[in-house]
Every structure is written in C-alpha cells, then in structure tokens.
Amino acid sequence: MVTEWTSESSRPEMAGTKTEGSVMRSIEPNRTQAGRPGGLSPGGRGLGVAAVDPIPIFCEGLSSLVHRTPGLTWLGHAASHHAALQLCEQLKPDVIVLDSALDPNCHLSRLLSGGDPALVIITMIRDTNRTQQYLAAAIAAGVHAIVPRATDGRHLAEAIRRAHSDRRYIDPTLAALTARPKRQPVLPKPGDAPKPAAARGLMPLSRREYQVLQLVAEGLENSGIAKILFLSVETVRTHVKSILRKLSARDRTHAVTIAFRSGILVANPDDAHTPVEPAAAASIAPSPR
C-alpha cells in the first residue's frame, strides 16, 4: 500500500523517501500563515486550502475551484490520516476540507484541531454520516463548518470564507440536524467493570502514536516508520510500546485489530481510490501557477 500527500509544489524530480512500500515526499513550507487572522498574507497570498480525501478526481476538482476563487490558494491533498497530519505539520494550511467517510468517529478532526487551534476544519458530510449524532460529535471535535459532500462549488467557496471569518458555518440544508439529539442515558449494570477508552470509541492515543499505529497497520516495521515520520527507531519503538499498553494489546497485530474494531482506525471508504506510484501522483497533482 502506498501512502502519500501531494502538495501544490510537488515535482516528479523531487527527492522522496521510500520504505517498504510506503512513499512520502517531504517539502519545506512555502508560505506564511496566511489569514491568521483573516485577510491576505503580507505577500498577497490568500487563504491556504488543503483537502483530506481518498478520491483524486475530487481533489482535482477542489483544486480547480480554489484556483479560480480570488483570495484562496491551493496547497495540496492527503488520502490518509497520518498523511493529513504530516501535510498540516509541514504546510500549515488555513483551511482543511475533510471527507466525513475518512473520519466517522471524528478522531482525525480532534487531532487536527488540537495540533493547530487556528486551523479551520470543514467537513464534507456524506449521506451515511448525515445524523444528529455525527454533527454533534464533529462540532465537539473542533470542526468549524459542515456542508454536504454533494454541494456545488459556489456554496463550498462561500462555506470556506464563512467558516474562516465566523469560525462556524452549518449548511442550511443541515440545520434540522443541529438540534440536540435526545438520548436516554445507558446506565452500567451492577458489577460491570468500566470499559477502556478504546472500547468506548474514544481516542486514547497521542497524535504521534496515532500516526505510528496507522503505519503499523500498513505493515511497516519500526525502521520504515522511523524514515516516514523522520524519527529515530528507538523513538518509534517507544511509541509502539505505549500503543500496546494503552490498547491493552498483546502485540502489534492485536493492537491493529483492536483499533479497527473500536473505530480508532478506519478502513478506506468503498469508493476510495488506491493511491498511485509517485510519478503518476505527480502527474495528477495540480500544477503550479
């Protein structure tokens, strides 16, 4: 499996790091923190926009929308959780447009908002996630705007602007779902032991542990993970030990199994496109302007 994020300044000739089937290109940030707070950066650049979505053609369409919208600048896209965290660490976008299918439990949203409080997160919600519970969980996790995935370009551009200026935007078609859901409290049975965080669907892992677990699930050994995340092998080993302890797992395979069953890790959506090899990825990435 190949995992990578693609940026506006990607080039076929750029040097990459390839380890046991995982590919990732590292580039230096090429922007100031435009729009923090609102408006253009001193150099005249607009708000930096990036996407987290598994479908390249969708990201290509979003990049075209951003390119033709005054005041917005396209930075790139990622197709997985740990690639999204890497993209945000290195490019520091102002706005992230996130596919709800990649974040059904809002773990990624919480990690992104916790890592950069100034980041504006816009979730494009699919029909399968269109519930009161999901909207409430997304907002609690730090999502600033929620729009239908089927929205048109004009409304999405408006949502990006409104979310950045107002720090909150819910598409009018979703207004009925913003009412607080009525739920009966589930009381534990007498004698029941409290469930661990993983079993309750919570996120017990740190941002870095989450990235390490993603790569463990892809079959990488510690040395490969270290190269991808620019860490020492000993540091990765320490993270793996912490993951096993927090998930009460016997070994790496057991940890991955627990993570998928509890919703900490999420399988790619059914219509997700398997990321392509580096040269092909560069060919579909938006070209510099």
Automatic annotation (TrEMBL):
GO terms for molecular function: DNA binding. SUPFAM superfamilies: C-terminal effector domain of the bipartite response regulators (SSF46894), CheY-like (SSF52172). InterPro entries: CheY-like_superfamily (IPR011006), Sig_transdc_resp-reg_C-effctor (IPR016032), Sig_transdc_resp-reg_receiver (IPR001789), Tscrpt_reg_LuxR_C (IPR000792), WalR-like (IPR039420). One of its GO terms (biological process) is regulation of DNA-templated transcription. Pfam families: GerE. Residues 1-43 are annotated as: Disordered. Keywords: DNA-binding, Phosphoprotein. The modification 4-aspartylphosphate is found at residue 99. Residues 48-164 form the Response regulatory domain. Residues 198-263 form the HTH luxR-type domain. The keyword Amino-acid biosynthesis does not apply. It comes from the Bacteria. The keyword Signal does not apply. This is Two-component system response regulator. It comes from Amycolatopsis keratiniphila. The lineage of its organism: Bacteria, Bacillati, Actinomycetota, Actinomycetes, Pseudonocardiales.
